[in-house]
Specification:
The chain is mainly alpha-helical. It contains 27 helices and five strands.
Length: 570
């Protein structure tokens, strides 16, 4: 049934977006002739996307945005070490702080709404990213290519999985695509599809650098190109670029200085720490070829061959501009030791435009491919088969990683919030013995109860271990010396831990001896990511605050001993 539905969707799409007589027929169909309709459909899709995603990806989604916003509005929440060193801008968290403030004054600030509202806002921003990518592709290659580029954008598994999360990278991607779509001097296939106001494009570009200083890598060649093609480079710099840049960066500096209580310029601090001091390597180093050998192939999957073909098909230097821009962006990032998939978000839409260009040249269905005058692309390619191949890989990856893989880190939070609301969180509160920042924090509990997690602040001396490393090197010794050997009245009432056999096997006896019981379990993952398999997230509670044993049995909770035996059998 699902295959038949996919075939129906594919047939409907290529029937509406196919050029059969050499004309751009996209303008002749109702859904694509109106940009408002396109934007409306994208908003509906991405808002649904934002609700569907319920898995954990990276700590920055919560700890560098929502946690900071929660502290600004409600007065409590944890600031990681980056905020102590003024390495992050407050501009990004302030966006979500505005939402939290509205929820606060209306009395709608529950853990559920605090978790959902920012995701919906980011879903709307993701829709704008899609929309401006569609406009840019239509401007560069024509509306038919724009439609197919949009198809590649919305079916890309990584966009579905990541673009609706509250990363600064996602906001950077939105601002980048909007600025590029409005950039006046970019080549345009149709004169009616030119750019927007130059000042607005420059302001959006500068704002993307405020969000992520590494965005400067993308904009440097474009700014230099603008100066080169301008009839009066000096006038362009002094009358347009410099005033707009100073206004945007000055406003951001004022916001950050007010928030930090001292004069700061975050982009400079970011550059000094990550580039001059090599601080980014604390989060892991990767080989120089990682983006080429793993990053881009992983985020594109079956779309990568189409990207390469589309770049090869580009028939002018102007049409290859974004390919060169993406290549420059990836090349510079390759010299930075720490690399992540989400760092590719600003250039991924640019690559997918070329995938759309390749799809636009493909024969819609099996016909006489050897007909006189048929190009090699039409003889050897079949659009319907390609689209089914794309959907059969992109959709399962998007749904599995967005709904199943690492869902326990989020699923545990409503349970803990309920425990806090019902007064069962006492003493030392909640202790997270999970990898550092592996769950959300104050935003998803929304109660001023004591909470602790394993700290991973970079040690002052190179080679020293942070608290998280100390725990995982000897879990039982850490737990005994840091908690159970101290004031018993301040022991945590709830302890959250993954069922990593090495960790759970080490602390299990200690927990039982101190009257902790397993009260709930949440599925997390089928396979390991960067540590041993953490298949489930477990919640232990002290006897005085625990839910009844029958409640745990109703939830299907296994004993710790049985869980370890099961893992050993696997």
């Amino acid at each position: 049934m699902s295959i038949q539905l996919a075939i129906k969707i594919v047939d409907e799409f290529h029937e509406q977006a196919t050029c059969t007589d050499g004309k751009d027929l996209v303008h002749e169909v109702g859904w694509a002739s109106s940009e408002i309709q396109v934007l409306g459909l994208l908003l509906a899709f991405r808002l649904t996307n934002s609700v569907v995603v319920c898995t954990y990806f990276n700590a920055d989604e919560y700890w560098q945005s929502l946690e900071v916003a929660h502290r600004l509005v409600f007065g409590y929440g944890h600031l990681t070490w980056e905020w102590q060193s003024a390495l992050r801008t407050y501009v990004h968290p302030l966006i979500f702080a505005c939402i939290y403030f509205c929820l606060k004054i209306t009395g709608l600030d529950t853990p559920a709404t605090l978790a959902l509202a920012p995701r919906l806002l980011q879903g709307a921003c993701a829709a704008l990213t899609d929309f401006y990518m569609y406009k840019l592709a239509s401007r560069m290659f024509g509306p038919t290519v724009g439609a197919w580029a949009l198809f590649c954008q919305v079916t890309c598994w990584f966009h579905f999985f990541c673009s609706v999360r509250t990363f600064s990278n996602c906001m950077e991607s939105t601002l980048t695509m909007a600025a590029l779509a409005m950039w006046p001097s970019l080549p345009s296939r149709h004169t009616s599809q030119g750019g927007g106001p130059a000042a607005l494009a420059l302001a959006l570009a500068a704002a993307s650098v405020v969000m992520r200083p590494t965005a400067l890598i993308l904009w440097t060649p474009l700014v230099l190109r603008e100066m080169f093609i301008s009839q009066s480079p000096g006038r362009w710099v002094w009358q347009q670029a410099l005033p707009v840049g100073c206004a945007v960066f000055g406003l951001a500096a004022a916001v950050d200085s007010a928030a930090y209580g001292r004069w700061v310029f975050v982009p400079w601090n970011f550059f000094v720490f990550n580039v001059l001091r090599g601080g980014a390597a604390h989060y892991g180093s990767h080989p120089w070829h990682w983006y080429l050998s793993q990053g881009i192939p992983s985020v594109t999957l079956t779309l990568l061959p189409l990207v390469l073909v589309g770049i090869w098909q580009a028939n002018s230097h102007g049409q290859r501009l974004f390919a060169w821009l993406a290549a420059w962006f990836v090349a510079v990032h390759s010299f930075i030791p720490h690399k992540e998939f989400r760092f590719l978000l600003p250039v991924l839409p640019l690559l997918l435009m070329y995938a759309g260009r390749a799809l636009a040249t493909v024969q819609p269905a099996w016909t006489n491919h050897s007909a006189p005058g048929a190009g090699w692309q039409r003889r050897f390619w079949n659009r319907r088969a390609l689209l089914l191949g794309i959907l059969n890989h992109q959709v399962p990856a998007a749904l599995y990683l967005s709904v199943v893989h690492q869902r326990g880190s989020l699923a545990v939070m409503p349970f803990l919030a309920s425990e806090a609301e019902n007064g069962r969180v006492r003493g030392g509160g909640i202790l997270f013995l999970t990898p550092c920042h592996a769950t959300p924090f104050s935003t998803h509990i929304h109660r001023p109860v004591p909470m602790r997690f394993l700290d991973c602040t970079p040690p002052a001396q190179a080679g020293d271990m942070d608290e998280s490393d100390v725990f995982f090197s000897n879990p039982a010794s850490f737990l005994e010396s840091s908690y159970f050997a101290k004031d018993q009245d301040m022991l945590p009432s709830h302890i959250v831990v993954n069922d990593d056999p090495q960790v759970l096997g080490s602390v299990q006896t200690l927990l039982v001896e101190n009257n902790y019981k397993l009260v709930n379990t949440f599925f997390n993952a089928h396979f390991a990511v960067d540590r041993a398999l953490q298949a489930n997230v477990l919640v232990f509670s002290s006897a005085g605050t625990a839910s009844s044993t029958s409640d745990a049995e109703v939830l299907g909770v296994q004993t710790a001993e049985a869980r370890i035996e099961t893992l050993d059998d696997l």
